[in-house]
Amino acid sequence: MNILPLLTYAIVASFTPGPNNIIAMTHARNEGFKKILPFIAGVAAGCLLIMFLSSYFNLILHQYIPRIKPALNILGCVYMIYLAIKIMRSKSVNAKDPKVNRFTFLFGFTLQFINPKVILYGLTAISVFVMPLGDSHVHMIVFSLLLTIIGISANMTWGLCGMLFQSFLLKYERPFNILMGVLLIYSALSILK
């Protein structure tokens, strides 16, 4: 059982800039890490629910329509290469978040259901990497937890690093994006084996 492509995809998708990471970074920089813990807890809960929903959505598709698996693999690969190209070509990010008064559990939780990065992360990771490894309920729960833990680790890293990580990204943003894009392409091509 080779989970290296899954881990590579999950780490790249989680640690690249996105709404959760940017909000955690800027709010931690401005208010301190402890103030973002309710937001991160809400992100974790929302992310876990999306991972469970993605698992069972994919499980239902996998059980009833196994013929679409090759097409899903190709679509997943194309989508991940598209993401890699977007990451590698992306311009400088503006880490200033809008004036939001509270970064609460509820805000973090509901943000996940309008955050396409998390939704596509779950659907892609489960359909492309997890389903070929097995499809038992325990399997789905374990991998949903793993994907959530990786995602929240990234969110907490961005929050902890705050100003330091922001400075690093501004200084080395281009090489960082190219490296993340190359790793994403590796993950994409590994599903076509």
Number of strands: 0
Distance between the termini: 14 Å
Work out the strand percent.
Answer: under 5%
H/E series, N to C? HHHHHHH
Keywords: Cell membrane, Membrane, Transmembrane, Transmembrane helix
InterPro entries: LeuE-type
Membrane topology: Multi-pass membrane protein
Transmembrane segments: 6-24, 36-56, 68-85, 105-129, 141-164, 176-192
Account of the 3D structure:
- There is one protein chain.
- This protein starts with a helix and ends with a helix.
- It is built from seven helices and no strands.
- The protein has 193 residues and is mainly α.
- Helix 3 crosses helix 7 (137-190).
Summarize the structure.
The chain has 7 helices and no strands. The chain has 193 residues and is mostly helical.
What secondary-structure arrangement, pairings included, does this model have?
Layout: H1 4-15, H2 19-31, H3 37-64, H4 69-89, H5 105-111, H6 116-130, H7 137-190
Helix pairs in contact: 1-6, 1-7, 2-7, 3-5, 3-6, 3-7, 4-7, 6-7
Protein name: LysE family transporter
InterPro entries: LeuE-type
Main location: membrane
